[in-house]
Amino acid sequence: MPDAFDERRRGLEEEYFHRKNQEAIEKLREKMKVAQAAKAAGTSSMNCPRCDGALKESKLDEVSIDTCEKCGGVWLDSGELEQLISREGGVAFSAGSGINPKTRSYVTPNC
To answer: Which DSSP state fits 73?
Structure first.
């Protein structure tokens, strides 16, 4: 008799975790759709961590960076700072780049 209950319990547990996995997969697919739509529009799918403003993706020395339209903050994804430093002997901010090197910027991982 205990075997029948154990099998039923195991079956219910497997069904529960299968349903949770499917829900998680659907949430990830929705996030990917939003990110792809934002990339196609030239904006970021994330908001500024500092002021919650909209982030605009732009190119600086062939590296994509995110700039806040509200506070002017510059946000870099993982590895982008190293790419900028390695270009032109560490001189990544040129006069015509549109980026103010005196602006306080933070480096955050892209989660």
So the answer is: -
Instruction: Report the half-sphere exposure of 27 (CA within 13 A, side-chain side).
Output: 6
pTM: 0.46
* 23 φ/ψ sector (left φ>0, alpha ψ -120 to 50, else beta): alpha
- Cα-based torsion angle of the residue sequence 93, 99, 101, 105 in order, rounded to the nearest 10 degrees: -120
What b/e string do you get for 12-34 counting C-beta neighbours within 10 Å, with b at 16 or more? Answer: eeeeeeeeeeeeeeeeeeeeeee
* Cα first-last separation, the chain: 49
**Segment-wise mean pLDDT, segments of 10 residues, the chain, 111 residues:** 80 95 96 81 75 82 83 84 73 48 52 49
Cα 84 to Cα 1: distance, rounded to the nearest angstrom: 67
The pLDDT of residue 14 is 94
